[in-house]
């Protein structure tokens, strides 16, 4: 599906890779680096909750830093301490806990015991703790929290006595052995679950809450048996040993395969390590006046303030999210326990004002006393991010610069995709990984061949595969969208689809794909046969049966000028986007131009805020009916023939430019002279060979075809990407570039005559050395002077070059002598710096490279700072050293990529140029880059 007719930049809207993780946007002050000054310096390895703060995430992890922050705010946090990521790192490096760790933990444990008035695992009244992992970024694959550490055969009776609840004590012990056995000792969790099921069956009950103390005692015995049998050792009875083993297991969980995979996909560095939190237990499972819950300070979907959350009475830990019993909406807590509810509301307000952002929290009520167990700046949808940012400005909590750090270009891009009409969303078949955004509807096909065949006959198809491989490429191109049942965000399907800007849902594991029988089986036995309609949502990962209607995004309607932010029907989201874009345009330094080749795209680009055209490709002006002139040009045997062909092309070209300059009146338009190799304008070599051969056998060979075939053979190249193209063409085909320059000059003169304000810039592609540029410049200047004299105008045309070959970048100082501007062609520059032929590498081995972590993201998607970027930087500096007023821009697809825009801002380019639909994204990111330095500090994750 080409979502937006009129653009053919396939890279537009590349996938939203990592969700924005707002919790990390809080600026990190100096203190945290202190620990890293010298590796030899004695570092503190354990921090009491009251010693840390929210800015110490690198050292204490997200959870630990925020527990400390809440403690210091005076909120009721169960006391505890955090073991630093430094300790973890040393453990992972050496295979041993740092020497000082044991003593430091002992000291903090002593203090905790003093404060609580009881000792860990003490027989008559045990202190119990949870051991919780917590890295800087929350990460699936890390060790699950172990609750109730400190319980043993001896202390379980003490807990009974203290709580007056024998069932509670044995249930807690049973949970400890189960969690500890599974997560610390690595026992297969099913063994415990099976034993639990047996116990329920034996008693004839359905849920574990119906098991009594005596049943749980038996279960504990069974569980201990499982541990002994499976691990060859008894369940540790020494509470300190339990704690130490759990801490070590958390350290080790940093390197589980799942954690590593997640880090690679989300581009989280592998050397951060995790912190470990030891937190005294509070119990939500002590009867109906106890419970546990989760809450948001405002709606993470809409951004509205209110009471959002769930509460579960008489429950512990994950029970509330595990769905074992029905939770109640948080608002009902008011009826259950008004005092705690009011206190919670108060705390939520404190947290919002303090963090100046939406927070999500975990809490527990133990016999009417409220405890805070976790908070963090909460995740939110893209729409909510925009709404919340402007709401917080209105509340006076943040300023405009900070608001810009609260949203991302990826989020804005997400809001610009057409979407399924949620009112008409049909039955969800399954949910996979949202690999490449967009909304696609089509008939199910199960192989590439059918995809191509059906799409040629005008059908829209969704290509469904277990996973894709390079053989599926043509089918993927033909399909509206791609659905796979296997593979993650870096699978072949995901990478290639993102590269093509095509909707993709991958890894929908609930779906069984049977390519032989050409059918798909969804949970519940629903079968989708070849030809049945399905809909896939690449932004949510959802797969629907049947056709879900698609509606345009209101944000695009707004950018298009079809909806006004102030209008009655404009929704709150559009109003927020409007305000954020206004902030963005106020603070950004980088200008944003469009890659556009025709008046229609140029007009749209202007509506989207383009400040000119950074790349007008002229090749399409040689296609269609005009191809015949190009053929004549190529076949010309005399100067006269060639000149005649060029003469026919001049007015056509001129007409194109007049329209374009009119659409961009008053703004710069960079026109690139012809770039692609000539064979692209000739018939396909095989087709033509067959035609000629057939004609010859009939003895009526066409003279023109024969000449064409010769030309095709002559122009055939082993490696067209590195062959006769760009400036090389201009130099070997006399008159070609002169004709284009004349068309530009005449068009500009026409516009001046019509009282317009044309600002054309002529750009020479694929220059590798200044001599090439000088030759073209001399010729161009003559043509321009001639047109100016004849028409009596001053055209003020400038002439510059693309920097897209390593040699051009390396000799930028010389090239700048002959160039008024540089435009970095980062697509070709990436190809030539890496020695990658993009079409070949993306389909064949990029998946393997991404999976093996050679790079975290394709260098065609995000600029490779260290390699390609280094050349951009040095060429910019060298160019400006020669010519301080040298104008610098970029016109590769990177010009619209958020991360790359930040780089171009840093390097000091004047503008980025990107496809029209990415302009708002580039405007926003340019502003985020400009304001990150002053006020809003973001590490952009
Ligand atoms: P996660 O990172 O998965 O959120 P947590 O460490 O927050 O893991 O713990 C898992 C569950 O156990 C959460 O519901 C949390 O509130 C609860 N929990 C953790 N520590 C304690 C504690 N000391 N007392 C009571 N509940 C706890
Ligand atoms: Mg938690
Ligand atoms: Mg190029």
UniProtKB/TrEMBL annotation:
Residue sites binding Mg(2+) per the record: 804, 828
Domain named PEP-utilising enzyme C-terminal: residues: 575-929
Keyword Nucleotide-binding set for record: yes
SUPFAM superfamilies reported for this sequence: Glutathione synthetase ATP-binding domain-like, Phosphoenolpyruvate/pyruvate domain, Phosphohistidine domain
InterPro entries, per database record: ATP_grasp_subdomain_1, PEP-util_enz_mobile_dom, PEP_util_AS, PEP_util_C, Phosphohistidine_dom_sf, PPDK_AMP/ATP-bd, Pyruvate_phosphate_dikinase, Pyrv/PenolPyrv_kinase-like_dom
PEP-utilising enzyme mobile domain mapped to chain residues: 459-541
Keyword Ligase: no
Catalytic activity: pyruvate + phosphate + ATP = phosphoenolpyruvate + AMP + diphosphate + H(+)
Keywords associated with the record: ATP-binding, Kinase, Magnesium, Metal-binding, Nucleotide-binding, Pyruvate, Transferase
Essential cofactor(s): Mg(2+)
GO molecular function: ATP binding; kinase activity; metal ion binding; pyruvate, phosphate dikinase activity
Domain Pyruvate phosphate dikinase AMP/ATP-binding as annotated: residue spans: 101-326, 334-386
Any Pfam family: PEP-utilizers
The protein's Enzyme Commission number: 2.7.9.1
Active-site residues annotated for this sequence: 492, 891
Binding site for substrate: 617, 672, 804, 825-828
NCBIfam families: PRK05878.1, pyru_phos_dikin
Family the entry assigns: Belongs to the PEP-utilizing enzyme family.
The protein's name in its UniProt record: Pyruvate, phosphate dikinase
Lineage: Bacteria, Bacillati, Actinomycetota, Actinomycetes, Kitasatosporales
Gene giving rise to this polypeptide: ppdK
């Amino acid at each position: 599906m080409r979502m937006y007719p009129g653009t053919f930049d396939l890279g537009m809207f590349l996938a939203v890779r990592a969700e924005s993780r707002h919790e990390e946007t809080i600026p990190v002050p100096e203190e945290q680096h202190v620990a890293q000054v010298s590796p030899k310096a004695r570092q503190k390895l354990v921090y009491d909750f009251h010693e840390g703060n929210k800015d110490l995430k690198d050292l204490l992890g997200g959870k630990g830093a925020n527990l400390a922050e809440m403690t210091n705010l005076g909120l009721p946090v169960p006391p505890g301490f955090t073991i630093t990521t430094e300790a973890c790192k040393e453990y992972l490096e050496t295979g041993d806990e740092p020497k000082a760790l044991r003593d430091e933990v002992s000291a903090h444990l002593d203090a905790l015991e003093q404060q609580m008035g009881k000792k860990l695992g003490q027989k008559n009244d045990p202190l119990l703790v949870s051991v919780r992992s917590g890295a800087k970024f929350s990460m699936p694959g890390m060790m699950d929290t172990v609750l109730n550490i400190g319980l043993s055969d001896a202390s379980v009776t003490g807990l009974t006595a203290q709580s007056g609840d024998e069932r509670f004590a044995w249930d807690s012990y049973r949970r400890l052995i189960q969690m500890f056995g599974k997560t610390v000792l690595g026992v297969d969790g099913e063994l415990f679950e099976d034993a639990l099921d047996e116990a329920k069956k034996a008693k004839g009950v359905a849920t574990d809450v119906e098991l009594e103390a005596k049943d749980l005692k038996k279960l504990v015995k069974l569980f201990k048996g499982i541990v002994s049998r499976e691990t060859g050792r008894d369940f540790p009875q020494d509470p300190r040993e339990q704690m130490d083993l759990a801490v070590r297991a958390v350290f080790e969980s940093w390197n589980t395969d799942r954690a590593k995979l997640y880090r690679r996909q989300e581009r989280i560095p592998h050397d951060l390590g995790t912190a470990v939190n030891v937190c005294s237990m509070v119990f939500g499972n002590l009867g109906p006046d106890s419970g546990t819950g989760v809450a948001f300070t405002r709606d993470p979907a809409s951004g509205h303030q209110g009471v959002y959350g769930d509460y579960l009475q008489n429950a512990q830990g994950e029970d509330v999210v595990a769905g074992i019993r029905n939770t109640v909406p948080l608002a009902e807590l008011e009826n259950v326990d008004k005092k705690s509810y009011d206190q919670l509301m108060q705390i939520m307000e404190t947290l919002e004002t303090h963090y100046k952002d939406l927070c999500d929290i975990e809490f527990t009520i133990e016999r009417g006393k409220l405890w805070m167990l976790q908070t963090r700046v909460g995740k939110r949808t893209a729409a909510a991010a925009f709404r919340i940012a402007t709401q917080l400005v209105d509340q006076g909590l943040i300023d405009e610069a900070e608001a810009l750090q609260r949203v991302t270009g990826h989020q804005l891009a997400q809001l610009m995709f057409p979407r399924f009409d949620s009112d008409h969303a049909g039955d969800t078949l399954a949910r996979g990984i949202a690999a490449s955004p967009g909304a696609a509807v089509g008939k199910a096909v199960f192989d590439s061949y059918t995809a191509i065949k059906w799409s040629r006959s005008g059908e829209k198809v969704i290509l469904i595969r277990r996973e894709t491989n390079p053989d599926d490429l043509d089918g993927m191109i033909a399909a509206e969208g791609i659905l796979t049942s296997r593979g993650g965000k870096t699978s072949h399907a995901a990478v290639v689809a993102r590269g093509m800007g095509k909707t993709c849902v991958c890894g929908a594991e609930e779906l069984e794909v049977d390519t032989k029988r050409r059918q798909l089986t969804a949970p519940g036995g629903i079968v989708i046969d070849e030809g049945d309609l399905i809909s896939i949502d690449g932004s949510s990962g959802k797969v629907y049966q049947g056709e879900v209607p698609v509606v345009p995004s209101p944000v695009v309607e707004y950018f298009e000028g079809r909806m006004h932010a102030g209008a009655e029907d404009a929704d709150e989201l559009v109003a927020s986007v409007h305000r954020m874009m206004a902030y963005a345009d106020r603070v950004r330094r980088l200008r944003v131009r469009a890659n556009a080749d025709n008046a229609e795209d140029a007009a749209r680009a202007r509506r989207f805020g383009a400040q000119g055209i950074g790349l007008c490709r002229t090749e399409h002006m040689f296609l269609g009916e005009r191809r015949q002139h190009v053929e004549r040009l190529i076949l010309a045997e005399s100067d006269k023939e060639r000149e005649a062909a060029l003469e026919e092309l001049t007015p056509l070209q001129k007409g194109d430019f007049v329209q374009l300059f009119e659409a961009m009146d008053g703004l710069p338009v960079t026109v690139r002279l012809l770039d692609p190799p000539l064979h692209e304008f000739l018939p396909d070599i095989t087709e033509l060979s067959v035609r000629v051969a057939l004609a010859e056998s009939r003895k009526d060979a066409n003279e023109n075809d024969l000449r064409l075939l010769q030309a095709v053979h002559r122009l055939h190249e082993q490696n067209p990407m590195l062959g006769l193209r760009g400036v090389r063409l201009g130099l070997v085909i006399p008159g070609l570039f002169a004709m284009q320059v004349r068309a530009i000059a005449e068009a500009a003169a026409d516009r001046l005559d019509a009282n317009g304000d044309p600002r054309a810039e002529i750009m020479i592609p694929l220059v590798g050395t200044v001599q090439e540029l000088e030759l073209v410049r001399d010729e161009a200047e003559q043509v321009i002077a001639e047109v100016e004299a004849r028409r009596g105008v001053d055209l003020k045309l400038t002439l510059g070059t693309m920097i897209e070959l390593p040699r051009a970048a390396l000799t930028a100082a010389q090239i700048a002598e002959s160039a008024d501007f540089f435009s970095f062609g980062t697509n070709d520059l990436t190809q030539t710096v890496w020695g990658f032929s993009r079409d070949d590498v993306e389909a064949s081995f990029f998946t393997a490279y991404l999976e093996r972590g050679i790079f975290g993201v394709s260098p065609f998607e995000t600029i490779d700072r260290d390699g390609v970027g280094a050349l951009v930087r040095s060429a910019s500096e060298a160019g400006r050293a020669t010519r301080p007023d040298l104008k610098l821009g970029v016109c590769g697809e990177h010009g619209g990529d958020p991360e790359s825009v930040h780089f171009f801002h840093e390097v000091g380019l004047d503008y980025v140029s990107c496809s029209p639909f990415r302009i708002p994204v580039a405007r926003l990111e340019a502003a985020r880059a400009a304001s990150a330095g002053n006020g809003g500090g973001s590490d952009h994750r």
